[in-house]
Amino acid sequence: MEKLRDPWLVAAWPGMGFVGHLAAAYLARSLSAEVTGEVPPREHFDLAKVDVKNGIVVPRQPPRTLLSTWRGGDHPHDLLILQSERQPETGSRRFCDEVIAMAKEQGVVRTFTFAAMGMPTSPDAPSRVFAAATDVALASELRALGVEFLADGEIGGMNGLLLASAAERGLSGACLLGEFPFFASAVPNPKAAASILRVFSRISGVPIDVTELDHQAAEVQKQLMALVKQLEEVARAQSASQGRSGRKEAEEEREKEGAEDWPAPANDGDLAPEDQQRIEGLFVAAAHDRSKAIQLKTELDRLDVFKRYENRFLDLFKRAE
Q1: 110 alpha-carbon distance from chain centroid
Q2: Fewer CB in a 10 Å sphere around the end CB: N or C, the chain?
Q3: Is-above-0.85 flag for pTM?
């Protein structure tokens, strides 16, 4: 087989919003990349179930990790595109080392992973692309394209581990993270995938037509905006109900204890105890279920205290995957 020309490796695994996986799959399909290899699953996947069909036990096949090749012709770099059906359950770092070893055998000179960045953003907002690079030179190239960088934090799963393995073996690399609404982590997000591919096209010079993704993104956005409206209506109704309940309890308590013992109305931006307790409960709920954050945001806005809690609210979503 003809040697690849200074190839770049692009890798993605299923994750939040299916952003990275969707971007890599679209890249391979739009370039008509040819499947040329597979990373052996070995001990990296622990299959705890079997299938039964018509009463017969059928062993499950482990998830596949395929390598596709695109030869760029006059383009200075060919591409190797890794698409995996699932992240390894055991030996993740060894898996990355195996992938990078295979990549180096193919002459790979740069590695990119595609991933997602859940943020408290609206579905109709532009999808920004964030990045983290293994070296200053590549970081400078990406900054020149207007890409925002992760100042601090972490990248979960294989998207970060692969870059760590690459850096240890002298390969330059970066993770491109497409921004999407955190509450929609279970919904494939073609807008974020398209944003990643636009940045990758500019950094690599590979022409990528994302028109199809843009059409898909418009439809998903329409559905998500309808969901947001519905959730906001539910949150407002719950907030109003809680407010009425809180006022009733307060009035009953005041009648019981006497007006002279009741604290003066909250002023100076201070919260009433029942409001404070409700906010703390919503923060706890949102930390375990990010869909609850819409209700939390609505309550903070109703009480006109969002600015006071803004940093704490945003900390709920400072996570990349």
Answers
A1: 22
A2: N
A3: no
